[in-house]
């Protein structure tokens, strides 16, 4: 990766507090705080491993708006280091590193007139390790490695439910979570968001949040779920501002603020998930982002069960993307880009021949015309790895892995996941004569959830290590030439999280 930002002069690091944040902190931040803090605590690893959500308490109180309120603090601390070294002069090298502690204060009211509730969350991070020469680590505020605070969620929610259906209209700053998984299977990490818009919670310090109007519901006794909405702005994982959907995406990269000049009016989307039976799920979605791109997605997931814990699972998916309007996503510095259209198809296999062993594998092919993009979520693609996320144009991909679940030997909620994958036949969008080097990646995750009956109930710890080897011909745009690339990227992460409800 090429450092695109000129070195900035050092200055004192500080924790940014806007007026709203100070006011809320002064009040004790009891109700400033998160509908989707509960949805923020979503599983990304094995069956049964969840960051616990706050259950809405049942009550017959006369004042449900106050008596059904809930609030708390989700503690999180994270360390991230990613470095790359090439063995050829002039090839890109980088070192991204940072660590922080913080998380978010959250809370919601009960319902007023059995209809209206409000809530929100205050995100904050304090630096623990903040070398100024190693920014862009998804944890600290770029480019100076600062701490920060931001009112990430502040919303009103209108909801209705009866025995067979429920609907919710949410207006304001919010987390968008459209997850729904197959039951009683090991939930593979790469379908984290299960949508082209989501939280993108990679277990750094904070997820993405949005300024939006969203409508979500369940029908047919909960077997059909729908999601729809219109999004105007987005706050990136380590940003303090809500920006339009072009500027917010590139806030994550190494561009200076002055280069983020693109404008877009927003995104409209719709998604449907349907379980015609307990072992089958169909998913479909469409997202239209003004002047950027359109994204469509289809997925079929089915499980063949042998007994309570042994099964075989197969999934298949198809994705289509094409440019929209000025196609800013393929342009530079907010300028109109080249139009594109591309497709991807993939298959996923997973088994559990023994309670302690879960092998899995996936493969996919991407059109030669353009790469697959997921700027507003991890995305639902099978091909997401720990470091490599989007498949390049023309890419042929296969990934194999296995999980060891130690609960069968009495170590409940301890798991080890190891995976290896190869990406080949890659090229710059629509240009097979401009090659990208092959991408080979190996990774391992060790995850532990502390016992629910102990003093550290709900404490989740993860350690991750990954390596990427890039070898072969690589088009270097800055030189206008094809170079031989032989480089290695190392990725190390450690994070802990603990939900602490106040009431």
Automatic annotation (TrEMBL):
One of its GO terms (molecular function) is porin activity. Keywords: Signal, Transport. GO terms for cellular component: membrane. Coiled coil: none annotated. Transmembrane segments: none annotated. The keyword Protein biosynthesis does not apply. The keyword Iron does not apply. Belongs to the outer membrane porin (Opr) (TC 1.B.25) family. This is OprD family porin.
